[in-house]
Amino acid sequence: MQNAQWIHYAFMTLAIFLEVAANIFIKYSDGFRRRWMGASGIACILASFTALSQAVKGIDLSIAYALWGGTGILLTTIAALILFQQKLSRTGWLGIASIVVGISLLKLA
Predict the structure, then answer these.
(1) What is the pLDDT of residues 76-106, one digit of tens each?
(2) Which of 44, 52, 56, 84 would staple 15 via disulfide (CB 3.0–4.6 Å)?
(3) Sign of dihedral through CA atoms 94, 97, 99, 102?
(4) How distant, in Å, are the alpha carbons of 21, 52, 77, 89 from that of 93?
(5) pLDDT of 52-74, one tens digit each?
(6) Do 58 and 2 contact (CB within 8 A), yes or no?
(7) What is the C-alpha separation between 26 and 17, in angstroms, rounded?
(8) Number of Cβ atoms within 10 Å of the Cβ of 20
(9) How far from 87 is each of 40, 52, 107, CA to CA, in Å?
């Protein structure tokens, strides 16, 4: 990784964690009945897109979007398991594994 390349991956990491936080806040908002939680979710997703826009300055868009979306799905699934006891079936986990393999293949391409 080049010297300045780390900053783009730092923005990517921030974008991913903000996306996961947005999903958690939206779940806690209870269909936007808890407006503060809903507003926090919206703020997090806007901040996530802002960080993603900085990440794509140094990461190919196809790679960045796959990392952002796929890793966000994986981490959101894990958060849902821990926070809300929402479990995936084996088929669901196979789907998650397919996403991870797909991201890895894109990165290697």
Answers:
(1) 999 999 999 999 999 999 999 999 898 888 8
(2) 52
(3) negative
(4) 21, 26, 9, 6
(5) 999 999 999 989 999 999 999 99
(6) no
(7) 14
(8) 22
(9) 25, 29, 29
